[in-house]
Amino acid sequence: DFPAGYTKYHTYDEATKEIDALVARYPALVSKKVIGTSQEGRDILALKVSRNVTEDEAEPEVLFTAHQHAREHLTVEMALYLLGEFTSKYGSDPRITKMLDSREIWIIPDLNPDGGAYDIAAGSFRSWRKNRQPTPGSRSVGTDLNRNWDFKWGCCGGSSSSPSSEIYRGPSAASAPEVQVVANFVRSRIVGGTQQIKAAIDFHTYSELVLWPFGFTDDDTGPGMTRDDHDAFATIGKSMAASNGYTPEQSSELYITDGAIDDWLWGDQKVFAYTFEMYPSSAGAGGFYPKDTVIPRETTRNREAVLRLLEVADCPYRAIGKEA
Ligand code: 0X9
Ligand code: CA
Ligand code: ZN
């Protein structure tokens, strides 16, 4: 369980219960799908939120993911907040109503349930980051999920081949079961040859940043990223950051990463994918472990940014005046 001062954070079981209660209460708006299982056999869930949720309608889809990194527990709260907001405000909040009427929203609240459970299992935090997958030929446990995605995997010095490293990329691209499950889910949203998911945010902590691809290169344009692509990414990213007070930048400005989810989502699937680094801005303010009293403020803080991305998701190039 979570230690004193953190008990409002949801354990995996508590999150699952809350999700099941929402599905039971709003069956026309939310549906739950088990898209696969983690290394240790925990269900990885995808929640779909939309009007007429049981039908696959021809609407732009938007994906929100959380908790690739075990110790970043605030991101699960972010996902649960969005789920609660979308369901409880449908029919009363006009922007949310319009989005649920015209988008299909996917929320994967916990990409790394094993790591999250391990981080809190001892009663005090372990500062665990990776998943809990044994590494063949090593005593070290865990792959950094956000270095394991199958796009430019291990290409550029933005990950480690050493199993003991915090940024161990795994023995091969998509070697982590959790990455395979979510990548297969994303690919399953290709309908008639077209990827239905148009935009995405992957939530992390901390540093208060809005990041966009690519992370593997310092170049802002190049193969797979036209000037228009870049400008749309930057314009939408800056708009979201203006709403939550985060700092917007290309992810490689933070540091080079290869095998990160947003590079795969854009590079392989052409999804307008962002990474949010949530509260706090620095280690002094609690680092990976801010007290549970900040949860309402720091999740609500991203409401406007999420709405802005949803609203532009039907045609991201509209942000730069180039509607297709
Ligand atoms: O290193 C990471 O994976 C992220 N930072 S964290 O402290 N949450 O671990 C930053 C990733 C930035 N790169 C991309 N988003 N590509
Ligand atoms: Ca719908
Ligand atoms: Zn992270």
Automatic annotation (TrEMBL):
Gene Ontology MF terms: carboxypeptidase activity
Entry coiled-coil feature ranges: none
All residue ranges annotated as the Peptidase M14 domain in the record: 8-313
UniProt cofactor(s): Zn(2+)
Keyword Ion transport part of the UniProt annotation: no
Signal peptide limits: none
Active site: E277
Keywords, in A-Z order: Carboxypeptidase, Hydrolase, Metal-binding, Metalloprotease, Protease, Zinc
Highest taxon listed in the record's lineage: Bacteria
Keyword Hydrolase carried by entry: yes
Family recorded in the similarity comment: Belongs to the peptidase M14 family.
Protein name, per record: Carboxypeptidase T
Gene source species: Streptomyces kronopolitis
